[in-house]
Amino acid sequence: MTLSDLGIAVVAGTVQGIVEWLPVSSQGNLSLVLTLLGTDPAVAVQLALFLQVGTTLSAATYYRHEIQTALNAVPGWRPRNAYEGDNAIASYVVIASFMTGVVGIPLYIFAVDLAGQLTGGVFIAVIGLLLLATGVLQFASESVSMGGQTAPTLTDSLLVGAVQGLAILPGISRSGMTTSVFLFRSYEPPAAFRLSFLLSIPASLGAAVLTLLSAGGLPGISPTAAVVALSVSAIVGYLTIDALMRVVERVPFWAVCFGLGGLAIVGGGVVSIVV
């Protein structure tokens, strides 16, 4: 592995470890970084999805008690009218994850194919547009009156799972989209963030497996670089998750999405002109 490979792995792992917890699309921002570092857009999309495994390990460690609760409740899963307590969490994870696959797998195939046909500048601009869309949804969710809902229903699971599937597109924030849906469904922000992060674990693992299968192995990265990138993202992710979750509750991230989206659109146009 060359020094360049090592440097890219460290940068990619660090970016993933930080932005995964912010509702600004970790995949979109990491794809932007990788593209600017010279990575092919299609490979950048696949790498960004694959590196979510590192932060999945962080989330699994941080939410180990909630995961245990969900696993313990799986044998007792029942239909919607019995969505209570631990059963609600187990049912939510299973149903929402299934819906994510139904929506996300076709979109993944479409995204990788489209990215392979776009130049770097156009690809960056498209990510910018999707970041703006994420910002619009988050801005709208801030005006919703907060309720006392805490346990997800069948409708919540289906909606959140489908919306999470859209986040396979770089620029669509998984956490931003899912937490916004929960807010629209009258959840308090802390409950929305917790349920969103819990669902990220099976979603990220599924995305990584899909990436490996579709790419026929590690996409554009050596095994050594993959270990470095995943290790860095896991360590940085675990060290930052608590602090960044507190930041999320205080910062209007719709404005951050607008800013990053605008910069990406302008930057993509400049790159296209220069190239």
The secondary structure category is mainly alpha
**What can be said about the biggest beta sheet?**
none
User: What's the quaternary structure here?
Assistant: single chain
How would you state the average pLDDT, rounded? 77
Low-confidence stretches: 74-83
Shape: globular
**Helical content band:** over 70%
Strand-residue proportion: under 5%
Let me know the number of strands.
0
Q: Radius of gyration, Cα only, in angstroms?
A: 18 Å
Domains, number: 1
Instruction: Summarize the helix and strand pattern as letters.
Output: HHHHHHHHHHHH
Total of helices = 12
User: In whole angstroms, how far apart are the ends?
Assistant: 28 Å
InterPro entries: UppP
Membrane topology: Multi-pass membrane protein
Main location: membrane
Protein name: Undecaprenyl-diphosphatase
Give the helix/strand layout:
Elements: H1 3-19, H2 26-36, H3 41-50, H4 52-62, H5 64-73, H6 85-117, H7 120-141, H8 154-166, H9 174-184, H10 189-215, H11 223-248, H12 253-274
Primary descriptors:
mainly alpha, 275 residues, single chain
Written description of the protein model:
With 275 residues, the protein is mainly alpha-helical. It has one domain (3-274). The chain is 77% helix and 0% strand. The chain crosses the membrane at residues 89-111, 118-139, 159-183, 195-215, 221-241, 253-274. This is Undecaprenyl-diphosphatase.
